[in-house]
Structures are given as structure tokens and as C-alpha cells.
Amino acid sequence: MERHRFGNSDLTVSAIGLGCYGMSGAYGPADDRESLATIRRALELGVNFLDTSASYGNGHNQRLIGEAIQGRRHEVVIHSKSGSPRHGSAGGGEARYLRATCETSLENLGIETLDVFCLSRIDPKVPVEESVAAMAALVKEGKTRFIALSECSAESLRRGSAVHPLVSLQMEYSLFSRDAERQGQIAACKDLGAAMMAYAVLGRGLISGAPPPPESFGAKDVRAHLPRFEPAHFEKNLALRAALEALARRKGASLAQLAVAWTMAMGKRAGTFVVPIPGAKSRAHLEENIGAASLALTDDDLAAIDRIAPPGAASGARYQESAMQRINA
Questions:
Q1: Nearest CA to 287 among 307, 249, 257?
Q2: pLDDT of 151-205, one tens digit each?
Q3: Coil, strand or helix: which one is 250?
């Protein structure tokens, strides 16, 4: 597994990371034993970059990672988001909240310092400069080595970087979600020397394996509340998926591998480091995903993908309206 310098830091991370969100019940039940085995298998295969959040499973996700990396802290780069306060959809950018969340994350993970502490969403009540300054104080105190933002606008990334260097920007970026191209975030990352982390690379299951029908989702499955999985949108997205799957077969790859390889190729085309963090809660899915590291996509391949799934091709918004208001802020 190739490794690259992570943005403007001295961290070196694997070309493909591991998103751990699904290990805490976001996409249906997960098995802790298999999740632990998946994290450890990732390390064996050279994947050293793990993404988590204080909000995943109310700390369960971080405790799981902490158990998996016992005795192996030096092998892992941990990117942990702040999450948002549970009392409402807004908030999360205040210094007091960020400090408390960082300290709780350290306790849950069983480590002394985060590698990257990331603000999950821009707080509409707090200027981004104030939130970044609060996180910069945590860097000075040794609670995190680097800081980052998630799902913000290119303007906010630039404003925040003027206060303190931001090592990365995390955004949903996939064959079905290409906002980062249209809204300028990838270009801003290049200009600032920041990496971009691509999450939901597999479209929350829409572009990997066989997506389960929406009627099978339990109440705790986040997809039950996402527009792209509503019946009318779901059927249209399956048709889009089928065309991409045919292209993947011609490349001798799975659709998941095509999706992951595409994000890396798009980063290279843009001249910046885009690291996909596909989620996996089983070793089989992990191994399939990282097979993308050996899948080379040509300019002709990228052009063919653009014809099938240009920006805006997916049917339905990626979040409900209330959540959409908190991105690109």
C-alpha cells in the first residue's frame, strides 16, 4: 500500500484509509468482534489511516478503535471529528465544546494525543476563525497534533487556514457526490496544501455490492432517512449504478474498486492528494476495497465515467434538507 504525506503535515498515510462509522450501527447491525478483526487486518495490509468521530455510537466507535490498536498506537494515524452537540442540529463550534469533545475522545481511544482533530460542521453561531483558534489551542497543549475541517465551503477553509494551518478537509465525494469539484473545495485544498478526505465513497452502499432495498432498513439505519434511498430516487440510482458496474466489469474490477480508484484518480488529475476512506465492517469488504490500490484508470476510463455519471447525475439530495443547510457553510 502506497503512503503519501498528509497535507501540510509530517504525517504519512496510506493511499486508502478506513472509515469506521459503520462499525457502530449506522448501516444496520455490526459485530464488534468482526470490526476489531477488520481494523487489525487493515493494519496488516498497510492501511494506517482510521477515521472516527466522537458522535459515532456515542463513543462506542472510539472505544472500539482504542481496543483494536492497543500496543500498536505507533502504527496508526487517527483522524477524529468533533461531532455535534446532541441537544440540537446546530452548534459544535464553541471552544468549550471542542475542548470537552477532544478530551473525551482521547479518553475513549485510550491515547494521549490525536493525530488530527476535525470540526465536523461549521457552527452558524460561531465564526470559523474562532473555532479554528479554539482547536489551535489544543494543538499548543499537545492534545492533537493537527486540526482540520469537514463539509465546509472553500471560503471557510481559506478563512480558517489564515488563523492556523488546516491539514485536511473531509467531504462526501464519490461517483454520486461531486460537489467538491463544482463548489471549489478540491481547488482550495490544492492552493492551501491541504489533503482532501473522501467519505461515503461507496455511496453508503449504493455503489458497492448489492444495495439492500430501502424497505429493509431498520429505524437506526441512517439510510432510512436519506433522499437517495427513497423509492423513486432509489430506482433511478440503481440504473446509474448498473451502467457503472458494466464499466467496472470491463476493467476486471468490482464496482466498489472502481469507485475507490476513481477518487484517487480524480485527486491526481486535480494535482492534490485525495484519500478515500471507504467504510468496511468486515474483512472481506475491507480487502475488496483496498484492491482498488492496484486498479489504474486511464484518461479514457475517466472520460467514460464522466459520460455515465457527470456531476449531479445521482437522483435525490445526499441529506435531508435540515442537514443540507449545514454543509458548504
A1: 257
A2: 999 999 999 999 999 999 999 999 999 999 999 999 999 999 999 999 999 999 9
A3: helix
Please tell me the distance from the alpha carbon of residue 118 to that of residue 116, in angstroms, as a whole number: 6
Q: Which of 58, 134, 5, 49 is nearest to 149 (CA)?
A: 134
Q: Residues 190-211, buried b or exposed e (16+ Cβ, 10 A)?
A: eebbbbbbbbbbbbbbbbbeeb
Note the pLDDT tens digit of each residue in 109-132. Answer: 999 999 999 999 999 999 999 999
Whether the pTM exceeds 0.85: the reply is yes
- Burial (0-12, 13-18, 19+ Cβ within 10 Å), 48: buried
For the record, the C-alpha cell of 259 comes out as: 469507485
Active site residues: 56
Amino acid at 132: V
- Could you write out the DSSP letters of every residue in 172-233? E-BTTB-HHHHSSHHHHHHHHT-EEEEESTTGGGTTSS-PPPGGG--TT-GGGG-GGGSHHH
Helix (H, G, I), strand (E, B) or coil at 124: coil
Q: Let me know the angle formed at the C-alpha of 285 by 296 and 12, rounded to the nearest 5 degrees.
A: 60
Q: How far apart are CA 6 and CA 273, in angstroms?
A: 8
180: left (phi over 0), alpha (psi -120 to 50) or beta: alpha
d(CA 20, CA 320): 22
Could you count the other beta carbons within 10 Å of the beta carbon of residue 74? 7
Residue of 44, 5, 16 whose CA lies nearest to 280? 16
Q: Is 81 helix (H, G, I), strand (E, B) or coil?
A: strand
Which set of grid coordinates corresponds to residue 214?
430501502
Q: All domains of the chain, ordered by start, with CATH? A: 3-205+261-296 (3.20.20.100)
